[in-house]
Every structure is written in structure tokens, then in C-alpha cells.
Amino acid sequence: MRKIKVILNPVSGGGLSAKVWKKVEPELQKRGIPYEFEATTKDRAARDIAKDAVKQGFHWIIGIGGDGTFSNVINGLFENGKLINKNVIFSPIPAGRGNDFIKTVKVPKNPIKALEQILNGQERIIDLIAVTYTKADKTKGNYLCLNLADFGMGGEVVYKVNRSKLATILGGKGVFLLYSFLGLFTYTNKKITLTLSKFEKITNQCRLVVCANGEYAGGGMWFAPKAKLDDGKMDFLAIQNVTVLETLRKFGKLYQGKLSDDSKVISKQITELTADSEEDVFIDVDGENMGQLPAHFKVLPKVLPIKC
């Protein structure tokens, strides 16, 4: 069996991850599966732990947390867009607020069932989205997106969700719903120029733009029902120039996976996107704030081995 490193974010899900680990660890020990465990700290992120682990010879990285933790872990497995060790695989055990990536890969929320599935699951290689964004100091930053990136209203919602203390009361889905609802009334559409796959250019007032690798985000919002993790494409959605009332009407479609059917929504499968605006437009990558526009998004086909 591959040498296993378990990486835990102790604050994921308002502390749920620690409870999940208390169930998973005895099961690993009962099965006689050797592993090494490390929790993130203020000074040592999941990305740092993962990077050190693969350089130390660990070939199987198991992340326990939410989408942000999983994303941070897989970023530690790469340097300059390539795997540090081509034999490494990644597996997720959910313990976050939204738990959206696991919906696409169909990993159970139950910790023991999740462990069972990743131990006995099939290996496959999936796509990622390379994101180049603008930092506060106007320099460029780079990050790999595992599940979904968006900008516009979503970026501001995520900023508030990640700083909210309401998750322990409302749960992940409840907090996303609350701030998404409030955002409907407080967020103003931004004029954004979008260039799709280098050829098609669109300039319009946009409320939200999505680049999806997985199907879900925001605690169950079904942005991209046709998305596949290994098709070499990302599902692009742009909600254009809508009023508050129109946006409210679209919420039902969003949870039903029918948003792309709306006349004010552009929906395409693309491989690359460039976005710019003269206004401040914030970016969300896998539930974490990641700078602002201008930004570039590009599919990296079949670069991440996973087992689940």
C-alpha cells in the first residue's frame, strides 16, 4: 500500500473535521493501515504540509475538511503546474461547510463510509483549472481550482461567509443561503469584459460569472449539471444584467440545475477565459477569496490522480 499522509484542517466546518478524525483514526488503526497525521496551524497551511509530504515520499494524501482544504492540499502537490511526484494520489473525506466537491465525486458524508469508499474506490485522473488573479498590491498570483471558481457577487458572498460566526448555528448551506440572499439586495452588477477560449469577446453588466470543474458550489447550488471532471473543459456561466427581482426568480432554477436554460444566462463549455473590469470584482476559488480581476482561467486536462 502507498505511504499515507492524512492532512486535517481543525477549523473546517466549525470544528467538525476534528470530530470526523476521531471516527476515522480508530478505523485506520483497526484495519492495520499505516499513516502519518498532521493538522494545519496558523503558520502551516494544508498546502505546505502536502508539499513537504510528497517530497518526503508520501504517495497518498488524504484531506479531511471542506472544499477550501481539499483545494489547498492539491495546490501543495504541484509546482509550476506539474505534479511534484507523478505517483501521488489524492482522496477527500468531507468535514466542511459546503461539501460540494464530494457531491460530484459521490463520496458519502458519513466518515466511515467515506473512508471505506476511498480505500476501495477506483483511481482516475481529473482536470484542474489554473487561475491567475490580481492581488491587492496589483501583482499576479496563481492557484489551482479543484471544483469551481467564480467572480462577481459570489466573490463578495464568500468573503462574508468565511468570516461569519453563524456556521455553527445555521450550518454551511444556511450561511451560504443567508449571505447569498443578502447579496441580492446589496450587490450591484459590474461591467466585465470576457474573452472565451481566446476568440469570443463579451462585454456586459454581470452579476455572477462561473468557471466550473465540478457540478456544485455554495452548499448545494447546482451550477453545472453537465460538468465532468475529466472532459478537458470547464462549464462557463455568466448571469448578465439582471435586477434583484430577476435574480430572486433564478434561485429556484439554480438549485434544480436549470440556470443555464435562462435567457439572461450565457452557458458554454470552454477551455480558457480571460476577464477584466475597471471596477473591483472579487474572485472566489473553491470557497476561498482569491484576489480580483483581471484574471485568467485555463483548464489543465487530466493532471490530478484521485482515488474515491
Q: How would you characterize this protein structure?
A:
This protein is an alpha+beta fold. The protein is built from 8 helices and 18 strands. A hairpin with a 2-residue loop joins strand 4 and strand 5. Helix 2 packs parallel to helix 3 and helix 6 runs antiparallel to helix 7. The chain is globular. The mean pLDDT is 93.
Short précis:
The protein is of the alpha+beta class and 308 residues long. Helices cover 30% and strands 37% of the residues. The relative contact order is 0.17.
Q: Outline the low-pLDDT stretches.
A: none
Rounded to an integer in angstroms, the radius of gyration calculated over CA atoms is: 19 Å
Tally of domains: 2
**CATH architecture classification name of the largest domain:** Sandwich
Secondary structure: number of strands: 18
Cofactor: Mg(2+)
Domain DAGKc: 1-135
Organism: Leptospira terpstrae serovar Hualin str. LT 11-33 = ATCC 700639
Keywords: ATP-binding, Kinase, Lipid biosynthesis, Lipid metabolism, Magnesium, Membrane, Metal-binding, Nucleotide-binding, Phospholipid biosynthesis, Phospholipid metabolism, Transferase, Transmembrane, Transmembrane helix
Give the secondary structure arrangement, pairings included.
Elements: E1 4-8, H1 16-30, E2 36-39, H2 46-55, E3 60-65, H3 67-75, E4 78-79, E5 82-83, E6 89-94, H4 101-105, H5 111-120, E7 123-134, E8 140-145, E9 148-152, H6 153-161, H7 167-186, E10 190-196, E11 200-212, E12 216-217, E13 221-222, E14 234-240, H8 244-256, E15 265-270, E16 272-276, E17 282-285, E18 288-307
Parallel strand pairs: 1-2, 1-3, 3-6
Antiparallel strand pairs: 4-5, 7-8, 7-18, 9-11, 9-17, 10-11, 10-16, 11-14, 12-13, 14-15, 16-18, 17-18
